[in-house]
Amino acid sequence: MKKTAYFFTVCILSLLTACTSSQRALIPEPPPVTAVPRPVPPPEVAPEESSVLAAVVQRVKQGPGIAKYIVQEGDAILVKSDITPADLEGLDPIGLEEYPRDALFEVLYEVSHARRLDDSRFLVDFSVEEKLTGRMRRDQLLWHIQEDAAGLLLAFDDDYQDAWERYFDVFDKYGAKVTFFLQGTMCPFCSTALNRGHDVGYHTLHHLNLTKVTPEVFFEETLSALDAFRNEGIPLRSFAYPYGLSESWMHEELSKSFTILRGYGVTFRVYDSETIRSGYISSKALDNILYKKDEDFEALVTSMLRTLKFIGGDLILPLTTHDISDTADWGITPRRLEYVLQTAQDLRLRFYRYQDF
Description:
TIM Barrel; 16 strands; 24% strand
């Protein structure tokens, strides 16, 4: 179904930009994705100059118990940790008693550039900066891929049932279960998808911008067809807003009929399972129009999925696209789809469906 839509930016500091071409989402093309730049190694600090700094490096290499967080700087996705003298208990470096208890050591992990050693191990460069003095140390840690609950929430939107069904065997190849946010009315694809272990959510009747319609049209677009699906055993537990656009009152109304409501944008966001169950999340777009070169796309996917797994726990990354085609602007090429699935499998990430929450 052909739709007229508008490009716009969902980034916080952007302005809305009108466009009259026929597209699948109201988002602009972002600048090319670049891998995280490898910092120039600083001069090494002699051990006697800071045994406390050396102890921090030792603590980082021990691994467990250090909280990590994500920082985005432009297109770069960085993983960092903050360490204080309190985290050095048991190491007792010389001079520790002279440090303020809230003295900060900032750790930067170069996860995007980690070197794979074998199926389950990576070598990760990291740097530690002593914020009081500006002194730095660089070292490496061994990252073992562990089984945990971190995973992807991969979805496909609109009315590309024929294309989606052709790739069921590819999903099976990688053990991937996905969610199809279907636009329109009840169709045989819904039962086929559920029988293959996938999930079906709802994406309105006609893919209208819901922020531009009357309340009567809003309810017609979002709720009028639900009984027909559910009477055929298709639960439709989740709902995706067309173009990712919504207003707060819509969340309140639709949460009466759906468990999870989903937006859409260009920003990398991860969620824990409890937050997903709270009702509303936004999903990162993977569409071809956003990434002109395969190497840009693959660099981004590598950075996102390694970051997700490195932090681990039960963090989940929602990802969304539309068609599966070499030529579709609003879709993903078969090569790129397999790159996502293969990378997730190699990192032992789980594949979640919206119905799992």
